[in-house]
Amino acid sequence: MDVDVGCPVCRAVRGDPPPPGGTIYADGRWWAAHAPTPPAPPGRLLLTPVRHGASLADLSEREAAALGPLLARLAAALQAETGANRVDVATFADTPADEERHVCLHLIPRGPGATAVRDVVALARRVADHLRAHRERAV
Predict the structure, then answer these.
(1) Contacts of 112 (CB under 8 A, 6+ apart)
(2) What is the pLDDT of residues 19-61, one digit of tens each?
(3) Which overall architecture, per CATH, does domain 8-137 show?
(4) Where are the alpha helices (DSSP H) in 1-139?
(5) Which are the contacts of 87, defined by CB distance < 8 A and separation ≥ 6?
(6) Residue 76 to residue 134: CA distance in whole angstroms
(7) Cα dihedral sign for 72, 60, 129, 78?
(8) Comparing C-alpha atoms, which of 32, 29, 122, 20 is closest to residue 74?
(9) In sequence order, what are the beta bridge partners of 30?
(10) Is 113 exposed, middle or buried (0-12, 13-18, 19+ CB in 10 A)?
(11) Residue 40's closest CA among 56, 13, 19?
(12) CB neighbours of 98 closer than 8 A, spacing ≥ 6?
C-alpha cells in the first residue's frame, strides 16, 4: 500500500480538496474527516488509512492494531457531539467511477441527534476538539 496519485481518497488525505471543517484526526497511519456533502449526509465521518489499499486485508499490523481503539474514540466523539444514540460503521472501497479502490470506513450517526446535524464545519471542529480533550483515555 502506497500513495496512489490517481486515487481521490489519497488526494483527500493530502487536502485536495480540503474536507469540510478540515482534518478531524491524523496520526500518520489513519486520517479522519467529515465526508463530502453531498453526497454524504451531514454528520457522516470518513476514516481511512493514509496509505493506499483496496482492502482491510492490506492493513499493516500497526494500522490494524490502531483501528479498533480509534473507531471507538471517533464513535464516542460523534455520539457526544451529535446526540446520536449509536454510530454505525460501514466500509466501502469503491469510488463513484470505480477507477481506484481505497478502504474507507464510514461512521454514520443514528438516532434523533443525527438528523439535527446541519453545520458540518462546526461538527468537524467539535469532534476534533472532543478527541483532543479525551486523548488521555486512548488505549
Answers:
(1) 83, 84, 85
(2) 888 999 999 999 999 987 676 777 889 999 999 988 899 999 9
(3) 2-Layer Sandwich (3.30)
(4) 8-13, 61-82, 120-133
(5) 74, 75, 78, 79, 107, 108, 109, 110
(6) 10
(7) negative
(8) 32
(9) 49
(10) middle
(11) 19
(12) none
Pick from 8, 5, 2: nearest CA to 94 = 8
Distance (Å, whole) CA 15 – CA 76: 25
- Three cell numbers written together for 126: 467539535
DSSP lists the bridge partners of residue 23 as 33
Tell me how long the chain is: 139
CB 9, CB 48: distance < 8 Å: yes
pTM of the model: 0.82
Reading the block at residue 71, the C-alpha cell is 473507531
C-alpha grid cell for residue 58?
492490506
Over its C-alpha atoms, the chain yields an Rg (Å, rounded) of: 14
- The structural domains of the chain, with segments of one domain joined by +, span 8-137
Nearest-angstrom CA–CA distance, 37 and 25? 18
